[in-house]
């Protein structure tokens, strides 16, 4: 599940080149130095170089302990190293010191919902949605929808996913989530329609193909079952979904 969150709720990671320190470096503002170290930490984290990422982010926070972006980056780092408890105070600091950091609110909301604190998580997403500077509303909408999925509130989940699709009709993640919501409500024709739209975007995953197989089995569409099953075997032969599909097919043929 955590992969899904991290896939639905991932922040934009900024890249930077190597930074050399010159005699004039002491003329840089604290804000500039914090920004450089934060960018450097995020870049190292993207590359999987966790030790230098930690060092860069620690330098940023030593310079400005209340900096929202540095705290947000450190929270993501703590999640990356699987220290969820350590991440929370950094998330809290990030949103408390900059109300307009909607990206931090989105990630904090995801963290809270994944921790079972649904109302707190939704409060973060709703705050991000009310932010007039939020130019990526669909991320907040996807996050809120995914939060409602965790408590099986299909109606509210669907409402937020559809809002995301209003602005981005070809948003693959929203289409896939809508397919899952429809399948959970045994609405198999709608599931087929959303999955087809999902595949039409060029997106494909082992999970989506397994869902397609399960859905077409419900509709008794043997030709489509075979189509999606073959794609799953061909494209993701070593996946757990391929194993699940093999067991599912064996049971269906009994």
Description of the structure:
This protein has 14 helices and no strands. The protein is mostly helical. The protein has a domain at 169-254: Tetratricopeptide repeat domain (Serine Threonine Protein Phosphatase 5, Tetratricopeptide repeat, Alpha Horseshoe), CATH 1.25.40.
Could you name the key traits of this structure?
74% helix, 0% strand, 254 residues, mainly alpha, Serine Threonine Protein Phosphatase 5, Tetratricopeptide repeat
Write the layout of secondary structure elements.
Elements: H1 2-9, H2 30-46, H3 50-63, H4 68-80, H5 84-97, H6 102-114, H7 118-130, H8 137-150, H9 154-167, H10 172-184, H11 188-200, H12 206-218, H13 222-235, H14 240-253
Helix pairs in contact: 1-6, 2-3, 2-4, 3-4, 4-5, 5-6, 6-7, 6-8, 7-8, 8-9, 9-10, 10-11, 11-12, 12-13, 12-14
Average pLDDT across residues? 90
Order of helices and strands: HHHHHHHHHHHHHH
Oligomeric category: single chain
At the fourth level of CATH, the homologous superfamily of the domain at 169-254 is: Tetratricopeptide repeat domain
CATH topology of the domain at 169-254: Serine Threonine Protein Phosphatase 5, Tetratricopeptide repeat
CATH architecture of the domain at 169-254: Alpha Horseshoe
Report strand %.
under 5%
| CATH class category label of the domain at 169-254 | Mainly Alpha
Q: How many E-type strands? A: 0
Unreliable stretches: 1-25
Number of helical regions? 14
Structural class, from helix and strand content? mainly alpha
Global geometry = elongated
